[in-house]
Each structure stands twice: as structure tokens, then as C-alpha cells.
Design goal:
By secondary structure, the chain is mainly α. It is built from one helix and no strands. The chain starts with a helix and ends with a helix.
């Protein structure tokens, strides 16, 4: 009887480990997606700032304010 109890216990632990590792993997993937969104936002903001600067510079040059 005792041998079957330990076998059942051994079978239960991997399932719990798999569930927790699956949750951990999902959490890490979610965090990576958040980081990717943040980087995309920073890139978009940088590009917007660059275009504003270029527009302002050309506007100053064309209208003789520079």
C-alpha cells in the first residue's frame, strides 16, 4: 500500500510543477509583451519628436525666421 501512495504522490508533484511552471512562463511572456509595447511607444514618441523638429526647422528656414 505504501508503494502506491508514494507513486501517487510522485505523480501529483509533476502536475503541480507543470502548472506552476506554465503560469510562470505565461507571466514572463506577458512581461515581455509589456516591455515590447513600452519600447514601441518610446520609438513612436522619438519619431514624432524628430518630425516635429524637422518641420519646425524647415518652417523657420522657409519663412526666414531662422
Amino acid at each position: 500500500m505504501r508503494g502506491t501512495d508514494t507513486e501517487e504522490g510522485a505523480n501529483r508533484n509533476p502536475v503541480r510543477r507543470n502548472q506552476s511552471s506554465t503560469a510562470e512562463v505565461k507571466r514572463k511572456q506577458r512581461i515581455l509583451r509589456y516591455k515590447a509595447y513600452r519600447i514601441q511607444g518610446k520609438m513612436k514618441a522619438s519619431i514624432r519628436k524628430t518630425f516635429r523638429w524637422v518641420k519646425r526647422r524647415f518652417s523657420y528656414i522657409i519663412h526666414g525666421r531662422y
